Amino acid sequence: MKRVSVIILTVIISLLASSCQENLPVREDLSSLLTTSLRSGYVIQNNRSYLRFYLSVKNTLDETLEGVAAIHGKIVVTWIPTLNDDGDFNKSRTFIIASDNIFTGLKNYNKLTGRLSIPPGDSMVFFTNWDLKTDDSTYLTNHFQMHQENGCNVTYSDFSSGKRRISDRQKFIFSASIKLFDQLAVLYSTPVMTAQCVVVSYMFEGGNCPNLNLVDPCSLIGQ
User: Fold this and answer.
1) CB 182 within 8 A of CB 124
2) What is the CATH architecture assignment of 3-138+169-204?
3) Of 34, 33, 53, 35, which Cα lies nearest the Cα of 43?
4) Distance between CA atoms of residues 27 and 165, nearest Å
5) Residue of 94, 91, 70, 89 whose CA lies nearest to 81
6) Rounded CA gap, 116 and 52, in Å?
7) pTM of the entire predicted model
8) Where are the domains of the chain?
9) Are 13 and 31 in contact (CB under 8 A)?
10) 91 neighbors 118 (Cβ within 8 angstroms)
């Protein structure tokens, strides 16, 4: 399998680019080497709800891309209210992405040597979980339209009891940027829109609560 140093590859690309057009942005060169994609999911851990965001970076070359790693990026998520919300608060959350956020592809990263190697067609996938708390510490679930699930009693973190609550389908837009190699520029993703119902986190539940469909929790309220 061929292996290409990022430093050598960058020099070759720069020379080819300069022969066609001067001062060609590095980011345009990278679009043919690495492609980014975003997706979202929903997870519940210990009865706590999270939106999960995945950032994937794929090597589209037919050769291994390797070099000194400089893994640093961010994912920015913004809630888009379905109703007119007059709350004066930050509706976004920014997450810093580093090597600790690697979801798949950890075998490609050598933490001891600080080098990254991505085989042809392989991807580095990063993730982060969001508890719906914004950058100014606002819990968005306090602003969602909620439905109570009859027959399912739970105990919340403040030790109050009540029905399990599920929000209307909420809209979010998220985008990302990431730098993988020391010698290559930052990659930018295309913004993605998602819609998701959210279960308000709780500590304990009674015995009559149906299992949640994590693929589509909205099914419990018929949305």
Assistant:
1) no
2) Sandwich (2.60)
3) 53
4) 45
5) 91
6) 25
7) 0.81
8) 3-138+169-204
9) no
10) no
